[in-house]
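BUG: 3D viewer hangs when loading the predicted structure for this chain

Environment: internal workstation, default settings.
Expected: structure renders.
Actual: progress bar stalls at 90%.

Input used:
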Amino acid sequence: MRTRGTLRLATRGSALARRQASLVRDALEERRYEVELVTVDTTGDQIRDELIHRLGKTGAFVRELDERVLEGDLDAAVHSMKDMPTEQPEELVTAAVPERGRPGDALITPDGTTLEELPAGATVGTSSLRRRAQLLSERPDLEVEPLRGNVDTRIEKLLAPALQEEHQERTEADKERKGNTGNDDFDPEYDRTTDEWFDDLSELEKGALGREVETAYDAIVLAQAGLERSGLAHYVDYQELPTSTFVPAPGQGALAVTAPDGETARDIQTAIDHPRSRVETTVERTILAELGGGCIAPVGIYAVVQGEYVHATVSVFDRDGEESVTGSRDLPIETHAEAAREFARDLADRGAAALIEEAREDAEGDGDESVSEEDKPEGK
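Structure tokens produced before the viewer hung:
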């Protein structure tokens, strides 16, 4: 029954994007709105063979959704906040920031190995400039290789080599078992046949068996919120990376609902906005905007409301994690936006601006026009 009016929300078509949009839909429906999710196929989703920072358009997964909203086709759009450019069209507002999910990163390995336990020279997959720099800062011996795709795609790429090797071994064992029928002294290596083993695999593992292996990863790094929202956290072994060292991307774990400035935006804010999450992400995005790093530099920014203050932590690296400018500060919550700008200016004076400019020159030299570290098909 229509009770508060139907809202048409734009979302990307990936599994993760639709799960996240569903969280917003459910929250609105609890406030007696009728909600329709409308899938928008973005240019960024169609480009699947390029690294994130080579897509060539800042906010490749955001702008096209917002354009549909501004054209009046849809009422609002649901985004991963970390994908959003710091500059928005004047007529568009962030109508709501629902309660934030886990903000940190997760290191996933096939067998539960931690970052500290990875062998020297281990290959870790990520296409995030920030994660690459942070990994190399902690473990300069690692080989960090590009990794893109939906969350399930990335995990399948991680699991593929070991599963395919085991499949081959089991297939050979099946042949040997058949050749030794009636031999009482034969001791098979595996108790079950390959078909029996395959039937017990998860859909994720079955998908990994069909993957073409181009790079054998020992570990990969993903946003923990994306891993959990994808419903895959229970199927893999992972380590939560500390936010004090692996400072998250600004807005990581948070969703944002954008809408034209007006009554609809105000209604959405009243219904589902989470004030604490809005303050924390406002601080993070304000610092990012003031630093001017966008997505061309490895920048981590994380803010947490603590009583009357917002504790903000920032780390800015060069691309190889060899140089960094880091800092933390308690910002008065009543003036959090201006205090965040002042903190950013201090960091810039301490060398953050120089690192960001160096990263910008590197990007221009590479012919890159970088976009958000998380701009990628995530159906992740």
